[in-house]
Design brief:
By secondary structure, the chain is an alpha/beta fold. It has 2 domains: 77 residues, no CATH class; 233 residues, Rossmann fold (3-Layer(aba) Sandwich). Helix content is 38%, strand content 25%. It contains 15 helices and 17 strands.
Length: 371
């Protein structure tokens, strides 16, 4: 058993079964044994993100953020908040590009790199020290209490929010909870732990089929609700993989979408190595839209990463791919990296971007425009 598995087993023996949301939260965020408490090198061994592929991802995002600043009528301070900033690689790409290519926007930019892991927060503070020293950036373990004008964005965050796991059984929803059987964890169907689960599916007009397993992303709903409260004027960008509810809960997903990732291999074994493998569930973009709307967040669009990056890059024929003085070999490598980000067989159609706004009526973002 992993150290975390031993702790969870002892907890279950003492207090009884736990919800899958509790299990997932401990597996990912336990302060000592959780997956995201481990060094960043552990994550690279298991999976990579768009940020790891090419700096063009951050550069094109910087162009979109600069346009948001313009749509907000050039506020003197534009607060750009990155949730789950990791060790600051994306922040570094955005800040470097804004400083060199978008000087007016950079003058107004205040970047907040939010990372709840103390170890990674220290790493990102060290990486971003040149910008922190001149007052352009700060590392934080908390999202600001108020964003008067700006944007909060996340890249592959919501898929790692704990979810409740349910099954339609005997014409009613039951919750799949975790208990232990010897040295193993097993699921048992119990009454729902909270009526919020029923409300979650009812709000989206979703009725599961008999025997169907699904996830209820209550924490993601709470999160977008809180972001809507804290944002006065500006935008929310969510980049992740997932679907609208009608697709998320269709026949192709009768067993749900939860997966584990380890050594660049996906698996349906959610109990193999608690704390030592990543756990993810597809994002429910319908829920993010609905719960966001309750706090004044209007949906501007939901597009694939392919469409978003192509719309932003076509204005200058992807000149942002290159740095001054790059030789042809380096340029060819940069073009191959871009293909990984935009091609359907790469990351292009797997990831989607949800854009929401508050207090910016009739906003048109270049990244959402038809190609």
């Amino acid at each position: 058993m992993t150290p975390l598995a031993a702790l969870l087993a002892a907890r279950i023996r003492r207090f009884g079964p736990i919800t899958f949301a509790e299990y997932m939260r401990e597996c990912l965020y336990h302060p000592l044994h959780g997956y995201y408490a481990q060094p960043e090198a552990r994550r690279y061994a298991d999976y990579f993100t768009s940020v790891d592929v090419s700096p063009i991802f951050g550069r094109l995002l910087a162009r979109q953020f600069a346009e948001m600043w313009q749509l907000l009528a050039h506020p003197r301070e534009f607060l750009l908040v990155e949730a789950a900033a990791g060790t600051g690689r994306l922040a570094d790409h955005v800040l470097e590009f804004a400083q060199s290519r978008l000087p007016e926007f950079f003058g107004a930019l205040q970047y907040v790199a939010v990372e709840r892991s103390p170890a990674r927060c220290e790493q990102l503070a060290a990486r971003l020290a040149p910008y922190c020293q001149v007052g352009k950036c700060r590392a934080s373990q908390e999202i600001p209490a108020r964003i008067s004008a700006g944007c909060l964005f996340s890249n592959e965050l919501i898929d790692a929010f704990p979810v409740h796991r349910v099954i339609q059984q005997g014409g009613a929803l039951k919750e799949l909870c975790i208990t232990n059987q010897g040295d193993s964890f097993v699921e048992i169907a119990l009454p729902l732990s909270t009526c919020a689960i029923t409300d979650y599916f009812a709000a989206q007009q979703i009725i599961l089929r008999e025997g169907q397993i699904a996830e209820a992303g209550l924490e993601a709903c709470d999160w977008i609700t809180e972001i809507g409260r804290r944002l006065d004027r500006g935008f929310v960008l969510t980049i992740d993989y997932g679907h609208e509810a009608a697709e998320l809960f269709d026949d192709r997903h009768r067993a749900g979408t939860l997966m584990s990732y380890r050594d660049h291999q996906a698996s349906g074994d959610l109990f193999a190595a608690p704390g030592e493998q990543d756990l993810t569930a597809h994002v429910n973009f319908t829920a993010l839209r609905q719960w966001g709307a309750r706090q004044g967040l209007e949906t501007l669009g939901l597009v694939s990463q392919t469409a978003f990056l192509l719309a932003l890059g076509k204005g200058n024929d992807f000149a942002d791919l290159y740095k001054d003085g790059m030789d042809e070999t380096s340029r060819a490598r940069a073009r191959l990296q871009l293909k990984t980000l935009i091609y359907p067989e790469g990351m292009g159609e797997r990831f989607r971007l949800l854009a929401q706004q508050k207090g910016v009526p009739n906003a048109r973002l270049t990244g959402l425009q038809p190609l």
